[in-house]
Model the fold of this input.
Amino acid sequence: MSSTKRKSNIEPFKLNHLVDETCDGCGSETVAIEKNGRHCNGEWFETRRFSCGARIKFVPNYSRVEVDTPCPNTEKNKLMMIKRRTALESLQQYIEKLDVDKDCKQRLVDAFKYFNIGR
Ligand SMILES: [Zn+2]
Done:
């Protein structure tokens, strides 16, 4: 039986920027990596997710590493997430008090509904 070799335009599956295989915060192991979408500067979008739930990504547009989901196991991040949730709730309460029509309030609330605070 002969095999048909296909030439792939995808580079070998190895992350170029997110090379640390354990979480910075708690040392959890990597559970998933992704490399998809190549920026016109030649760099790939990369993501790495750890067993603790933390997720980091490399954004080629800015050539920088960003924390998408902070490690939930550090005291610093626990406090940060409490503050972020509190800020979002305060913002929603503030919107409710604004002197604007109901439709406008709903649009403002909707704009923040899916705002990523890091979960
Ligand atoms: Zn972690």
Summary: The chain has a mean pLDDT of 87.
